[in-house]
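User: Structure please.
Assistant: Input sequence and predicted structure:
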Amino acid sequence: MEQFFFKINLNKTGELKQKAEVERRTFKFTSIGYALILVIMIGFVIGFNLSMKAKINNRSLLLNKIRDEIKSYKVSGDFLSKEDLTRLAEISTERIFWAKKLVAFSEKTTNKIAITHFSFKNNKLSIYGITQMNKDEKEYDLIDDFITELKNNKHIYTDFSDISFVSSRRDFEKDVEILRFQIDCESGSSRGGRK
């Protein structure tokens, strides 16, 4: 006859307590882990927000400073518009230095020619002058030589590339025959400078 053995666990309540203790410990550590992760994330978000707020404040301060400077320029009259800057650029690149031109004209004017006056209008410089006529000279030779001298001078020819004879007329003053003439120097560009 076979014997039957029964295994009776008399410590069942102890195992249940131990299992419950393990579960409680696992839950506790898991909860603490999640709480730490949550605190770290909240700290990161708060730090990021504070950093962004500081950047926004700095940008606002800079913007207010720029606005104040613009207002002070408008009040002081130092404010320059786009049109003002364009005009300044045109003036600096397209002006004519008259002092150098007048010195060049005086150097190229011989003792036989006298310039009576100048006129500058519509980018055209008109030179009015007189010369004494001699019997052995042709009336246009002297004027043509003068025009050639003007064309060979870089201070004149730089701004006035088209130099031409316009008109002349003979006249008498105190029994001396003189020739009155006009020479025009035209600018190749749209210059309107007066320097």
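The radius of gyration is 49 Å.
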